[in-house]
Amino acid sequence: MKQPNILFIMSDDHAAHAISAYTGGRINQTPNIDRIAKAGVRANNVYCTNSICAPSRAAILSGTYNHINGVRTLSDRFDGSQDTVAKRLQDSGYQTAIIGKWHLGHGDEADPTGFDHWCVLPGQGNYYDPHFINKDGKFQVEGYCTDIITNMTLDWLKNRDTDKPFCMMCHHKAPHRPWEPGPKYKDLYEDVDIPIPETFHDDHSHHAQAAREAKMTMWHLTVRDLKGPVPEGLSKEEEHHWRYQRYIKDYLRCVASIDDSVGELLDYLEAENLFDDTIVIYTSDQGFFLGDHNWFDKRFMYEESLRMPFVMSYPNHIPAGSVNNDIVLNIDFPAMFMDYAGLEVPEAWQGESCRATLEGNTPDDWRKAMYYRYWMHKDGAHNVWAHFGIRTHDYKLICYYADALDTDDRWAENDRGPEEPEWELFDLKKDPDEMISVYDDVDYEDVVPNLKKKLFALQAYYQDEAYDHPLAK
Ligand code: CA
């Protein structure tokens, strides 16, 4: 069997609803990311298991939930001695490389392992004239980060050993906050208004207290985010819209450069006749609120941040232009790579290979529900409460567990909120925008206990100690 090349392109905080393959172009066009979808599959229900940068990256490398791989919050470093898909592929003869955002710590035990070549941004990295770290140390490169990462990726591909298959992880910093556009797109959208999302005026009156306390609204955007002071003389409503326009335009300008980058990489593969033998994936470490519910940022288990964009091509295996609606998780990606490489998926990995699913042959026993957990209780900047929950095709049940559950991470030292856990239930078929929690609605009094049972069963299955707590009795 010929092992396929893998080009895994992952950006940071790029929501599926800022990709025209998903929206038909409601707020922007991404012709190059769309090329992958047209040549392969667009997956609509790919979810992260914890909607925040470092934890999602750790899950993708290790195939495990964050309580297993140790990266539950942004302050945890990845222990590079653990098993990863990069090590497995490298051991089996792949050339492996990672370029761009790493965000899993630095220093001996936290530098990338399992990669023949690595060149990564320290921490979040900078948009302009960024520093990079490789095995020889730190150095600075002039230019715009997205372009530099693209050029470094192309250079490595051009100079690789062509006798071996490759796994290249090209990880962009963009479009992460503070959303600094590249020189080419500074004036994009200058004379247009980007449409506001349907849920822009949500006041969270039908959500849990946690939603009302989150510091992620348009009003929490800083002068740095907005690239200048608010003009004088605006009414409150005018300022609200002004803030959204400033935010969303810079975000979409960053996305435009990412899309160009994808185009350059695809052009290279096509010119070198590699496209048919290469699995090409475009995804992001999580989703993002684009003014939805009046928010920016991620963290919550709500749809906009839970959903990862995921398009993948592999001609002769994945039908062109297909659409998949099965529940796939970030922890499934490494198992799928192993599957395609003809390697056995390690027992300890918690994800499943989504190969058959994405090829259009979903197994009958494929998961019908997913488990989520966000650990960073009341971090200073965003103030989102720790929560866990279950999503099925029809419902989502979320528990803000607050003081009802002890956690052993440093976030537990913060002011914890109510001692009673607070629950939300959304009927996703009737209320796909999750505007109204129906947890206390008598119409759902049979749904809730059934979902709780499934939720606690998933916690036990994934060995999250939370299952053994008073709520689960
Ligand atoms: Ca991120």
Helices and strands in order, then pairings?
Layout: E1 5-11, H1 20-23, H2 31-39, E2 41-43, E3 46-47, H3 53-62, H4 66-69, H5 85-91, E4 95-100, E5 117-120, E6 131-134, E7 137-140, H6 145-158, E8 166-171, H7 209-213, H8 223-226, H9 236-271, E9 278-284, H10 303-306, E10 310-313, E11 322-324, E12 328-329, H11 333-340, H12 355-358, E13 369-374, E14 387-392, E15 395-400, E16 422-427, H13 447-461
Parallel strand pairs: 1-8, 1-9, 2-11, 3-12, 4-5, 4-8
Antiparallel strand pairs: 2-10, 5-6, 6-7, 9-10, 13-14, 14-15, 15-16
Helix pairs in contact: 2-9, 6-9
Provide structural commentary:
The chain is α/β, with parallel strands linked by helices and 473 residues long. It folds into two domains: 301 residues, Alkaline Phosphatase, subunit A (3-Layer(aba) Sandwich), CATH 3.40.720.10; 103 residues, Arylsulfatase, C-terminal domain (2-Layer Sandwich), CATH 3.30.1120. A hairpin with a 2-residue loop joins strand 6 and strand 7. Helix 6 packs parallel to helix 9. The protein is globular. About 1% of the residues have low confidence. It binds calcium ion. Calcium ion (CA) binds next to loops.
Query: How far is the first residue's CA from the last residue's CA?
Result: 50 Å
Please tell me how large the radius of gyration is.
Answer: 21 Å
| Class computed from helices, strands and strand pairing | alpha/beta
Q: How many strands in all?
A: 16
Looking at this structure, what is the CATH superfamily of the largest domain?
Answer: Alkaline Phosphatase, subunit A
Name the CATH class of the largest domain. Answer: Alpha Beta
The domain count comes to 2
Number of helices: 13
Mean pLDDT, to the nearest integer, reads 94
The helix/strand series, from N terminus to C terminus, equals EHHEEHHHEEEEHEHHHEHEEEHHEEEEH
Instruction: Determine the CATH topology of the largest domain.
Output: Alkaline Phosphatase, subunit A
* Main pleated sheet: 10 strands, mixed
CATH architecture type of the largest domain: 3-Layer(aba) Sandwich
**Shape category:** globular
Main sheet strand line-up: 7-6-5-4-8-1-9-10-2-11
